[in-house]
Input
Amino acid sequence: MKFVTIIFLTISFVTFQTLAFSQDATSKIQISNDLLEKSKRQKTTAWVLMGTGGAAFVYGIAGFSRGFLDFDSDERGPSQIHGIALGYGLLAPLVSIPFFIKSGQNKRKANEVLVFQPVWMQQPFGQGAPGIRVTWQVGK
Output
């Protein structure tokens, strides 16, 4: 009975280890595809932040140059909007920098995952691989 229990536990342990810690080639490809997709989304986010920040900065500067120093009017609405746009225009490009950095890191990581993949090349039909044949006669 002890022998059967030990064999059962050993087989269970080996099976668990194999299922829990082994990786197949498709999981590495899937990880690489996920990282590339994440990198693409991060780069898109960074470019959107950079573009909208630049446009908001130009809008804020243009608005301030037209009527910022006009202290006779009691209207503060337009200059507040231009101030918010200028602030966003200054901060958004700064916020986009980490997105560019993480995008590059994820792209490099995705390429590193695929570096260790075995590549199977098929020989064209009809061509043999070079080799040596060695034969010897055993007994007569």
